[in-house]
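Researcher: Before we compare anything, I want clean individual predictions. No alignment, no superposition, just each chain on its own. First chain goes here; please echo the sequence and then give the structure tokens.
Model: Echoing the first chain and its structure:
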Amino acid sequence: MSELPNCPQCQSQYTYEDRDLFVCPECGHEWSGQETAEESSDGPVIKDANGNPLADGDSVTVIKDLKVKGSSLVVKVGTKVKNIRLVDGDHDIDCKIDGIGPMKLKSEFVKKA
């Protein structure tokens, strides 16, 4: 019998197969076997809003106005951010934005430039 992978979100061991997807009964997360192979090869893959994989040193463009917490500044749509660094956590992009300074962004609000 083949060993099923643990859930990538909650690490539950009680996953099961449903056609070509793996399903976690505890958190409801569904993923394909192909995603599991990509993640195990070199860690989790961080993707932009369009699903393109990101890497350290890439340039990205902001796709939504983002308010800077604790300030009246706003990062406008279309702002290009160069030389990003990927980090673990909720905000998975570390960067420096001209006119604002060092900042952390979520990958769901950027697209690869």
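Researcher: Okay. Second chain, same rules.
Model: Second chain and its structure:
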Amino acid sequence: MNKDPLQHLLPGTYPVYIDLTANIPLDIYFKQSIADLAQLETFRPLANKAYAADKWTVNDVILHMADTERIFQYRALVFARNDKIVLPAFDQEEYAGSAKANQRSFDSILQEFLLVKQNTQSLFSTFDDEALLRSSKFSKYVLPVLAIGYTIVGHQQHHLNILEARYKPLL
């Protein structure tokens, strides 16, 4: 399924990451997002470096992407299974500060992220159209599962854009 069923969402009623995605089928997008992880290899020499004081290191950014994707996997599962619980937001700064990414190797973080991405692809492959269009609420958003899928790939693209713009000049 592509993004067409999300056209009814009004700006400001969904995570901005969806706007970073193209209108291609989600299953193809997940395959592409796994392939896009190869781009991260460029940043290996900067694994424990940040582009400015009080900014995350490359390791922090990659682990943040993995953590966030896990959280979105859970949200998608809850919505797809028709659970009506309202899920809370999460504090990305708390997660990043507690993760200790810079005490880990670049390879271990990259491998973890690859596994998370493969799990995302596997999870979403189990959702039929009815599940993909089922909505529920997290934080301030009421979204269908499909929108969560596009948020996942858009979030990754957002951070790949930041790595390219702010970290690549340090190479």
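Researcher: What stands out in the second chain?
Model: The chain has a mean pLDDT of 95. Additionally, The domain at 16-170 is CATH 1.20.120.450 (Four Helix Bundle (Hemerythrin (Met), subunit A)).
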